[in-house]
Amino acid sequence: xxxxxxxxxxxxxxxxxxxxxxxxxxxxxxxxxxxxxxxxxxxxxxxxxxxxxxxxxxxxxxxxxxxxxxxxxxxxxxxxxxxxxxxxxxxxxxxxxxxxxxxxxxxxxxxxxxxxxxxxxxxxxxxxxxxxxxxxxxxxxxxxxxxxxxxxxxxxxxxxxxxxxxxxxxxxxxxxxxxxxxxxxxxxxxxxxxxxxxxxxxxxxxxxxxxxxxxxxxxxxxxxxxxxxxxxxxxxxxxxxxxxxxxxxxxxxxxxxxxxxxxxxxxxxxxxxxxxxxxxxxxxxxxxxxxxxxxxxxxxxxxxxxxxxxxxxxxxxxxxxxxxxxxxxxxxxxxxxxxxxxxxxxxxxxxxxx
Length: 354
What we know:
With 354 residues, this protein is of the alpha+beta class. The protein contains 15 helices and eight strands. Strands 1, 4, 5, 6 and 7 form a five-stranded mixed β-sheet that branches. The chain has a three-stranded antiparallel β-sheet with strand order 3-2-8, with no helix packed on it.
């Protein structure tokens, strides 16, 4: 048995996590949904989202048949919304091409939207009981520290070396237990900051511990200062207490989500309003600016609020606009700042998850 597995398996029986919701009846579908949700998101954040999601969409067919708005609604607040769109698209492919069951084949899984090599490996191991290596963020951290692998893991040569180690260390027996064990070790012991080395079963063989290099590994990507973009959100309310939302394009930032009408400048907003005669009943009020940060830029949002006289003049029959009633609106996906602004200025909707 490989060295890591020999040390990790006994540790996992005593200290590993065995009661996570996706570990109960761990079929390929539940494993897939959990792995997608766990990408760049902590377990404690994912658990309530996972439970709501699989309750509404208990299998691939239910997910494939659902409107995308419902899928995005249940994803609202979890971030990285391309994951939800890819889940929905992949479910439709699985129903169409694989009779509703995730295929037990690495290449076929990787051909599905949103599934990379590590996620495919996790589905094979934890869902289908097959052997395959995985290399998520937790595993990368354990391997780079244990074996002293320098260089940003996003570089091709470093990534290839880590996959070689992942393949070598994955046992042919008790593969699922080992896979969960190394993920758990990275998540609970070999953490990004303040790792609990005294509790680690690999401490005697760990390069980073031996040389005190835990803070240096994995090697981080060279940081660049993030650019800042400015945008104006138009918070337009009608006399019925409804707020105007606009559906964003299917791709890009917040793709497919509902947001406030967005403008690059006050002049652009004023031009939109003036093109609709007698639209705003009072002067627009500028609210405090807020910042929403993405991985590649900061977005500074200036909310501007106003009342609308005639909502029919505003949008007509345009399907990209929606008058949303905060207390009883439809189930739709919203960007996090939109959800927060609706909560702050129109009250917490029972249809919007905290």
